[in-house]
């Protein structure tokens, strides 16, 4: 153990902590700066108070230091992120964090928390650090090979439920036939296909992606959720090579234009897969190819349901001319989010 400054005088951990606290407080009063650690994994320190002693640090102190660090790095929602990463580090839930503020982190836990915070501070999304994201009540594995599923994509699943309800489809399939045949195009982590497999235990579900790496994650998610035998995965371009017809073609395709790249969050641009986000110069390129393919792939009266953005909503509506029951539905922020249409 190496101690420098006044801490070498501290002969017990408690005394060292007390000394450190008084330094931190004094410093905070002096220049009103947030009290943040120099090196996570070490005891949280005010900048002019070099403390090299590896001392146990309490959970609440570690969390406060992490919030300050993420705030300084301009990470949005720093407290939420700091808590999520601490929950990940300690493999615990939020209730545990609040119930055990005095719990001491081991040196190994502090160093893992430090590593996670360093990643977050350089912009890596929390979900890629923890490897998890919730979607439709399911815990999904995510890696940088897949887009992090967004809450607004749940509107695509809701739209399918709504259409099935509206069509008054029979609750049971005729003997020997699947209740519904559904294709999820650009499945990524498998989010939409898995949610639909959960909702429709009798449906036959096919999920496609152009990315082999994404399909590997989707398959892993299906296995973890015990839905592997419910979904057939295909590495293909859109719907190419699939056995037709389908009752539903659903998709959250890439729909951002390269021309609007500067309006996309830096974190998304830097860390999420480019071909999951960007479709081409205008953003409508993938959808423009998908619409006629879906028309061919659907049964009469079958539905196409796609996630879109407000930027391309009008353009997509035009592309759906000739379809029936065309609707553009907003998300919770009133942004046009789901385009749905029925094959006439
Ligand atoms: C926006 S992400 C959606 C992922 C997932 N469905 C979700 O909602 O979280 C789009 C996905 O489409 C895939 N993709 C892009 N172009 C494709 C194409 N031509 N054919 C099939 N999949 C494609 C990407 O690899 C990516 O996984």
Unreliable spans are 1-52
Structural class by secondary-structure content: alpha/beta
Tell the overall outline. elongated
Mean pLDDT: 87
> How are the strands of the biggest sheet laid out side by side?
7-6-5-8-11-13-12
Element pattern in H and E: HEHHHEHHEEHEHEHEEEHHEHEHEE
Fourth-level CATH superfamily of the largest domain: Vaccinia Virus protein VP39
**Architecture per CATH nomenclature, i.e. the level-2 architecture of the largest domain:** 3-Layer(aba) Sandwich
Q: Approximately how much helix is present in the residues?
A: 25-40%
Tell me which ligands are bound: S-adenosylmethionine
Using only C-alpha atoms, the radius of gyration works out to: 25 Å
How many independent structural domains? 2
Count of helix runs: 13
Could you walk me through the main structural features you see in this protein, from its secondary elements to its overall organization?
The chain is of the alpha/beta class. It is built from 13 helices and 13 strands. The strands form 4 sheets. The chain has a 7-stranded mixed beta sheet with strand order 7-6-5-8-11-13-12, sandwiched between helices. Strands 1-2 form a two-stranded antiparallel sheet. Strand 12 and strand 13 (336-342) form a beta hairpin. The longest helix is centred in the first third of the chain and has 19 residues, at 13-31.
């Amino acid at each position: 153990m190496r101690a420098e400054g006044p801490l070498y005088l501290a002969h017990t951990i408690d005394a060292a902590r007390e000394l450190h606290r008084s330094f931190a407080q004094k410093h905070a009063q002096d220049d009103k700066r947030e009290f943040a650690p120099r090196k996570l994994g070490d005891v949280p320190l005010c900048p002019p108070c070099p403390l090299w002693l590896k001392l146990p640090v309490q959970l609440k102190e570690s969390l406060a230091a992490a919030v300050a660090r993420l705030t300084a790095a301009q990470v949005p929602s720093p407290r939420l992120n700091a808590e999520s990463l601490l929950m990940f580090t300690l493999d615990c839930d939020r209730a545990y964090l609040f119930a055990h503020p005095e719990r001491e982190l081991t040196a190994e836990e502090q160093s893992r928390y430090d590593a996670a915070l360093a990643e977050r501070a350089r912009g890596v999304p929390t979900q890629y650090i923890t490897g998890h994201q919730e979607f439709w009540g399911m815990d999904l594995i995510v890696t940088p090979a897949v887009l992090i599923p967004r809450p607004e994509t749940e509107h695509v699943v809701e739209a399918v439920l709504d259409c099935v309800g509206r069509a008054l489809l029979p609750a049971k399939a005729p003997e020997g036939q699947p209740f519904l045949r559904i294709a999820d195009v650009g499945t990524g982590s498998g989010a939409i296909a898995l949610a639909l497999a959960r909702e429709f235990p009798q449906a036959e579900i096919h999920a496609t992606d152009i990315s082999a790496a994404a399909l590997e994650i989707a398959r892993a998610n299906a296995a973890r959720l015990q839905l592997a035998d419910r979904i057939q995965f295909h590495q293909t371009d859109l719907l190419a090579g699939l056995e037709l017809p389908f009752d539903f073609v659903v998709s959250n395709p890439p729909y951002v234009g390269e021309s609007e790249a500067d309006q996309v969050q830096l974190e998304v641009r830097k860390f999420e897969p480019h071909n999951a986000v960007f479709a081409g110069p205008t953003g409508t390129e993938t959808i423009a190819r998908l619409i006629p393919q879906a028309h061919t792939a659907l049964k009469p009266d079958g539905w196409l349901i796609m996630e879109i953005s407000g930027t391309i909503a009008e353009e997509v509506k035009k592309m759906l001319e000739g379809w029936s029951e065309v609707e553009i539905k907003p998300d919770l922020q009133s942004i046009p989010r789901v385009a749905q249409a029925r094959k006439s």
